[in-house]
Amino acid sequence: MKCVKPWRTATMAESRTWSQRAVHDWLPVAVVLLSVVIAWYVAAWALNAPGAIERVLDEEAGYTQLELFEATMTMERPLMPAPHQVAMDFYESLTEWPVDSPRNLIYHVLVTGQSTLLGFVMGTALGLLLSVLIVHSRTLDKALLPWIVASQTVPVLAIAPIVLVVLGSLGFSGTAPKAFIAMYLCFFPVTVAMVQGLRSPQKIETEMMHTYAASRWQSLWLLRLPAALPFLFPALRVGVAAGLVGAMVAELPTGAQAGLGARLLTGSYYGQTVQIWSALVMSALLGLALTGAVAGVERLVLRSRGGV
Amino acid sequence: MTPAWFWPAMLLLALVAGYSVHRVAALQGGRWTGMATAALFGAWVLVFWEILVRALDVPRVLLPAPSLVMGSMGDHAPKLWGDFVQTVGKAVLIGWALGCGLGFCVAVAIDRMPFLQRGLLPVASLTSAIPLVGMAPIAVMWFGFEWPSKAAVVVLMTFFPMLVSTLAGLQAAGKLERELMYSYAASYPRTLLALRLPAALPFIFGALKVNATLALIGAIVAEFFGSPTSGLGFRISTEAARMNMPLVWGAIVVAAVTGSVAYALLVQLERRAAFWHPSVREG
Q: Can you say how many angstroms the Cα of residue A27 is from the centroid of all Cα atoms in its chain?
């Protein structure tokens, strides 16, 4: 139970420090984000102006700078859509179409999120299993771990097209190949971090387990796994973000029907820039939501274990 | 059909392989025995891969034998070399250098502005959760099919990790050392050059290493979205579509070797540049 200090009843002072903290922490972020939006508008104006002059405005009749600005902000297929255009497209796709329509971004989020999560769960399970085996076997440690560590320096995502072709010719399609790619992208960071984490208990601690005559299982369950948790969660955050990239890339060559990656690709085929940008915004939100969820679980778990 | 003695022979060979790896792993010794174990294990994997693929007549589409991959790499060496130059020599190298350089410069520039730091750091950290490589179709639209569009994606992907790491590294110098510099009345640039940048080196090298892999991934995936008729990503996606899997594996071998060599080079460079740092001395 938390200790409430009875003499600290001055809520006014606390609320002031709270607001001061908000200014201290959030004002800079707000300023940075605002300047990003302003820079975006300026970029939209600068990039779209030549196209707008050519396609929208009548050059012979002449135009004012205001008309030019208006034209750059409202073009049909702009080189760089203005933020409000993206926001409008985003909002319309969410509200004006049913959830199971391919025009609704939620539909694509569900498709991509499903394969990402499935792959993430499988990859994490595989990584945990393998790291436990590696920690307990000197042979596996010496033979396998260097390869897994080395795989961190290799663009493993490049194997995605092979996986798609192989699983496709074996008759798998839909979620399975995408989840498989997300799985092996999640698997590497989790394994590397967990081997490190399971080895993190100090010698004095493992020796204490030894004097208690604890079995391997007990010392794994009671000492090594809890000690590895702080290593596991950062790897999970990396893994889920990598899995999302994997799932999106996996959607590229499959004929592009559903998913955020497919949405990006169709957008670029048909020059629908606004569609590309709103799909990008959606995938950014999905990535933030996934890592945010992992971070939330991390906080819950570490707090319930009495950590900081 | 495989002859009757095939499976018992394979079993025997597997036992020999397992035992030999086990024995080498049990050897006492420094780094070299560790690497020998890994190398032996890798060699055995290749041997079994070759034998099983040939014996079981696995279709080439599913899994080409290592010898086939090697042969294909030999046959198409000029092609793969062109891809390497296109992707690694232009897009990756230029994008990586620009992205890391920009991230470093911005970090140093806002080092004296805590307000901007507090604003940029959370935003820059969050970008690691965002699939930035999705910018590829837009980059292609802006910069065309050639390598500048790939380099742009690489710049975007490498910029933020470098920014975050450099900012963290600049805070890494100990209080004691800073106070020493202060007592010497050292100016800000002097402190930066003599104390804080050297103290930040391990962080910077960490970002350089992570970014090397990120840059390769970015350039290859960006080529999936549209590219000229060469490049590792282009080779992988088009040859996969044509079911010419040995060449796809060959392109992946090139990418993998590039990633590992880049990493090894950076580790060597770090040993030279930050030889005094505890993290290097221990390793």
A: 25
Q: What residue spans define the domains of chain B?
A: 6-57, 72-282
Cβ pair B21, A144 in contact under 8 A: no
A9 secondary structure, DSSP code: -
Which residues have C-beta within 8 Å of that of residue B257, sequence separation ≥ 6? Answer: none
B260: chain A residues, CB-CB within 8 Å: 150, 153-154
CB contact under 8 A, B134 and A261: yes
Whether residue A260 and residue B134 make contact (CB cut-off 8 A), yes or no, is yes
Distance between CA atoms of residues A15 and A27, nearest Å? 17
* Domain of residue A246, CATH code: 1.10.3720.10
Tell me the per-residue pLDDT of B206-223, one tens digit each, with 9 for 90 and over: 999 989 988 998 999 888
Q: Does B137 touch chain A (CB under 8 A)?
A: yes
The domain defined by B72-282 carries CATH number 1.10.3720.10: yes
ipTM of the complex, rounded to two decimals: 0.82
Nearest partner of A48 among B141, B226, B152, judged by Cα: B141
CB contact (8 A) between residue A284 and residue B131: yes
Tally of CB atoms within 10 A around A34 = 11
Cβ(A81)–Cβ(A44) below 8 Å: yes
Q: What is the pTM of this model?
A: 0.84
Domain that holds residue A26: 19-49
